[in-house]
Design goal:
The protein is α/β, with parallel strands linked by helices. It is built from nine helices and 14 strands.
Length: 296
C-alpha cells in the first residue's frame, strides 16, 4: 500500500507525515480505524485507479481522538477539500451511522456503517460493504439448492462478527453461535443483535467461550476474530462426519482443520472491493483489476 497517502488529524487540523499542514487532493476517500490496515483499502485504491486516476485513498491516523471529534473535523472541511467518502473500521462504524443522513438497508439493520459517501446535496450516505460482501459470498458457496445454512459458528466479537451472524440468519441458519473471548462482551452483543431490525425471531443464538464446541456442532464456521488471536483457541482439530466450511473474514487463516473446506478470505475481499468501487464510482466494476490486486 505504498501508493496510499497517510495523514494525521488532530483537534488543531490535518498534518502530513513531515508535520506540515496537509492540503487534501482534489478527490479522495479517507480510511479510518482498523480498516486503515485492511487489504480492502488497497483493493479500493486499485479499483479507483482503474476508473479515476485522480481519486486518492488516504489513511487517516486519528490517534486518541474520539470518533465524534474526527467526524466533526471532516464535516467542517470546505466542500473543495472534503473527501468523497470514508471507509471505517469496527470502532468507528456506530458513530458514522449515527452521523449519516441516510442508510442503506444493510447499514440500517445493523446500526453500523463501514462506508460513507459524502455529497453536498445528499449529505452523508452510509452503507455496509462487508455485510453485502459476506451475503454475496455466502450465496456463492452455499446456493439455494443446497437448502438453508446449517448451524453456524462465528468466531469473534467484532462488528464484522455481528455482520456475519446477521447475514447467516438471513440466509436461513436456524442456530447461530458467537464465540467470544471476553465475557464482558456478552451483554453488548445481546444488545446489538436485539437491536438489529431484521434479526429473524426464529433464530436461536448463543454466546460461548468455545470450550464446548466440536466439529459436529456446526457446518459453517466464520472467522471474524482479531488478527492476533490464533485459530487453535476455538477451531476443532478436524471436521466430523458432516461437511464443514470455514470462511475467513480477516485475512490471516492460511490453513483450516483437517476435512474443512476453506475458501479463504480472498473472495470476500474481492467482493467488498467491488462493492466499494460501485459505491464511490458507480458501474462498471473493474473486477479483473481487483482480482489481480488480491492475488498479488
Amino acid at each position: 500500500m505504498a501508493d496510499l497517502l497517510r495523514v494525521k488529524v488532530t483537534a488543531d487540523g490535518w498534518w502530513d507525515p513531515d508535520g506540515q499542514s496537509w492540503s487534501p487532493p482534489e478527490a479522495w476517500v479517507g480510511v479510518l480505524g482498523a480498516a486503515a490496515h485492511d487489504r480492502r483499502a488497497a483493493l479500493l485504491s486499485v479499483a479507483a485507479r482503474a476508473r479515476d486516476l485522480a481519486l486518492a485513498v488516504v489513511l487517516i491516523d486519528a490517534g486518541p481522538l474520539p470518533a465524534d471529534i474526527v467526524l466533526d473535523q471532516v464535516a467542517i472541511m470546505p466542500p473543495s477539500a472534503r473527501p468523497r467518502g470514508l471507509l471505517l473500521g469496527d470502532l468507528w462504524q456506530e458513530a458514522a451511522a449515527a452521523r449519516c443522513t441516510t442508510l442503506t438497508g444493510a447499514a440500517a439493520d445493523l446500526g453500523l456503517a463501514d462506508a460513507v459517501r459524502i455529497d453536498d446535496d445528499q449529505g452523508w450516505q452510509g452503507h455496509h460493504l462487508v455485510a453485502g460482501a459476506v451475503e454475496a459470498f455466502l450465496a456463492q458457496i452455499w446456493t439455494e439448492s443446497a437448502g438453508p445454512l446449517p448451524r453456524t459458528v462465528i468466531l469473534g466479537d467484532s462488528a464484522t462478527a455481528v455482520v456475519a451472524a446477521l447475514t447467516a440468519a438471513k440466509r436461513g441458519a436456524t442456530t447461530v453461535t458467537l464465540v467470544v473471548a471476553d465475557a464482558l462482551r456478552h451483554d453488548e452483543l445481546n444488545t446489538r443483535l436485539a437491536a438489529a431490525v431484521n434479526w429473524p425471531p426464529t433464530v436461536t443464538w448463543q454466546v460461548s467461550d468455545g470450550s464446548d464446541l466440536e466439529a459436529a456442532a456446526a457446518g459453517l464456521w466464520v472467522r471474524a476474530t482479531a488478527r492476533d488471536l490464533p485459530d487453535a483457541l476455538w477451531l476443532p482439530d478436524a471436521a466430523g462426519t458432516d461437511a464443514c466450511v470455514l470462511i475467513d473474514l480477516v485475512g490471516n487463516t492460511s490453513t483450516a482443520p483437517l476435512g474443512f473446506a476453506h475458501p479463504g478470505a480472498t473472495g470476500v475481499q474481492v467482493m467488498a472491493a467491488g462493492l466499494a468501487a460501485a459505491w464511490y464510482l458507480g458501474p462498471p466494476i473493474p473486477w479483473d483489476a481487483i482480482a489481480a490486486a488480491s492475488s498479488a
